[in-house]
C-alpha cells in the first residue's frame, strides 16, 4: 500500500489523495472476492473500504480516497472481515493519516473603516491551487465575502471588503472545500477586526483640473495658493465616506482639526464633493446639500461683492440643513427653508455648540450663524 496523489511523497493527509492497495491471492483462492478493511487504532470493528476483483493471476488493486486523520490498521481479507474466524487475512499494515489544515494569521485589530484588512495564511501540507474562501460572521452565520488561491508555498493573501464604511467589528475565518469530501470544509480559527472612524486626511497640491469650474482668470487666488484635502467624513447614514475640500494652503491643518473633531463627535456631513461636480454653481450645490470650500464667485444674492470662498478661506457645511439668508431676506437653498427654525435641533444642524463650530472657532474661523440681520448657518470664514 502506498499514497497516491499525496502532496508529500510517502505521507498520508486527510481528504487528500488516495490509498493505493495491491496484492495477490493464492491460486486456490483466485476466484474468491477480496475486500480491503480498515480499523482505527484502539477500535475492535473493521470497516470495509473497497472490494477489488482479483485477476486471473490472483493479483488485485484498489484505490480509496483518504478521509479521516488518525492511526489505522489496514488488511485484505477473503470470506468476511479480518475479525471473522473463518476469514483468510493478509498481513496488517499500520498507517498514520496526518490532518490537512488551513490557518489564518491574526487580523489587524482596528482599521480605517474605508480600508480593507488583509487576510493571510497557509495550508498544510503546502500546495498550490487551493481555493480559499473567506467568511464573515453575519448574525451568527458565516457568509462568503472574498476568495484567494494558494501559491507554490501554500500561502494565500486577500482582503476583506465586507462592511466597508460601517463602524463595527467583524469576525472572519478562512476555509477550503476538501477534495475527497466536497460537502465538507476545512476551516481555520477565527479572528476579528474593527472598522473605526478616522479622518485619514491627505493634503495635495491643487491642480488646474480640480478648479476647472471654480477658477477663472482674474480670481484673487489660483491653484498654487490652494491645497486639496481628501478626507473621510461621517455621513447621515452613520457610515464613513470619502470627500474633498479645497482651501487656502495655510489653513489645511485647521480644517483637518475641525473635521477630525466632527468625526470624533459623530457630527454628520451629507456630501463633500468638489464643486466641479455642480459646474461651480453655488445655488445648485447648496440645493444638493454639499459641503465645500474654494469657489471663485460672487456672494449669492449680491452680485456686487466677491465671496470669501474666492480666497479659499471659507467653508459651507450641510447647506440644506443650515440655510443662508441674504441681505434682502431670501433664504437659500429653497429646500432648506424647512430648517430655518433652529429648534428642535435636527441631525446635521450647526449650532454654536456643535463640535465642528467649536473647533473651527478656536482656530479663528467665524461662524455665519452669528451674523445679523443676515444669517448664514452653513458658513465658516477664516479671520485670523
TrEMBL record:
UniProt-recorded name of the protein: Peptidase M15C domain-containing protein
Q: Which organism is it from?
A: Microlunatus ginsengisoli
Peptidase M15C domain location: 305-382
UniProt cross-references to Gene3D superfamilies, sorted A to Z: 3.30.1380.10
Which top-rank group of organisms is this from?
A: Bacteria
Instruction: Report the Pfam families cross-referenced here.
Output: Peptidase_M15_4
Q: What is the lineage of its organism?
A: Bacteria, Bacillati, Actinomycetota, Actinomycetes, Propionibacteriales
Amino acid at each position: 500500500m502506498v499514497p497516491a496523489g499525496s502532496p508529500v511523497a510517502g505521507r498520508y493527509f486527510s481528504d487528500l489523495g488516495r490509498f493505493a492497495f495491491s496484492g495477490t491471492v493464492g491460486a486456490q483462492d483466485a476466484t474468491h472476492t477480496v475486500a480491503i478493511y480498515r480499523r482505527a487504532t484502539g477500535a475492535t470493528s473493521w470497516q470495509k473500504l473497497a472490494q477489488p476483483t482479483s485477476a486471473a493471476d490472483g493479483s488485485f488493486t484498489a484505490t480509496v480516497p483518504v478521509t479521516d486523520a488518525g492511526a489505522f490498521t489496514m488488511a485484505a481479507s477473503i470470506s468476511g472481515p479480518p475479525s471473522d474466524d473463518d476469514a483468510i487475512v493478509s498481513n496488517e499494515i499500520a498507517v498514520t493519516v496526518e490532518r490537512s489544515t488551513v490557518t489564518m494569521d491574526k487580523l489587524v485589530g482596528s482599521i480605517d473603516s474605508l480600508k480593507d484588512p488583509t487576510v493571510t495564511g497557509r495550508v498544510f501540507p503546502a500546495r498550490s491551487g487551493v481555493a480559499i474562501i473567506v467568511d464573515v460572521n453575519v448574525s451568527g452565520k458565516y457568509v462568503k465575502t472574498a476568495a484567494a488561491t494558494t501559491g507554490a508555498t501554500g500561502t494565500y493573501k486577500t482582503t476583506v471588503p465586507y462592511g466597508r464604511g460601517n463602524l463595527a467589528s467583524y469576525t472572519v475565518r478562512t476555509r477550503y472545500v476538501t477534495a475527497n469530501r466536497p460537502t465538507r470544509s476545512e476551516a481555520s480559527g477565527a479572528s476579528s477586526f474593527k472598522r473605526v472612524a478616522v479622518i485619514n486626511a491627505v493634503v495635495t497640491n491643487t491642480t488646474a483640473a480640480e478648479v476647472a469650474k471654480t477658477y477663472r482668470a482674474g480670481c484673487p487666488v489660483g491653484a498654487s495658493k490652494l491645497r486639496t484635502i481628501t478626507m473621510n467624513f461621517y455621513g447621515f447614514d452613520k457610515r464613513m465616506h470619502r470627500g474633498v475640500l479645497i482651501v487656502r494652503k495655510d489653513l489645511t491643518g485647521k480644517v483637518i482639526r475641525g473635521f477630525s473633531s466632527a468625526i470624533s463627535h459623530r457630527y454628520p456631513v451629507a456630501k463633500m464633493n468638489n464643486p466641479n461636480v455642480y459646474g461651480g454653481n453655488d445655488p445648485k450645490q447648496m440645493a444638493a446639500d454639499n459641503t465645500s470650500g474654494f469657489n471663485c464667485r460672487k456672494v449669492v444674492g449680491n452680485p456686487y461683492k466677491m465671496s470669501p470662498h474666492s480666497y479659499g478661506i471659507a467653508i459651507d457645511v450641510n447647506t440644506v440643513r443650515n440655510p443662508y439668508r441674504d441681505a434682502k431676506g431670501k433664504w437659500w437653498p429653497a429646500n432648506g427653508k424647512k430648517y430655518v427654525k433652529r429648534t428642535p435641533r435636527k441631525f446635521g444642524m450647526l449650532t454654536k455648540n456643535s463640535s465642528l463650530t467649536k473647533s473651527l472657532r478656536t482656530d479663528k474661523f467665524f461662524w455665519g450663524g452669528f451674523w445679523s440681520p443676515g444669517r448664514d448657518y452653513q458658513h465658516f470664514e477664516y479671520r485670523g
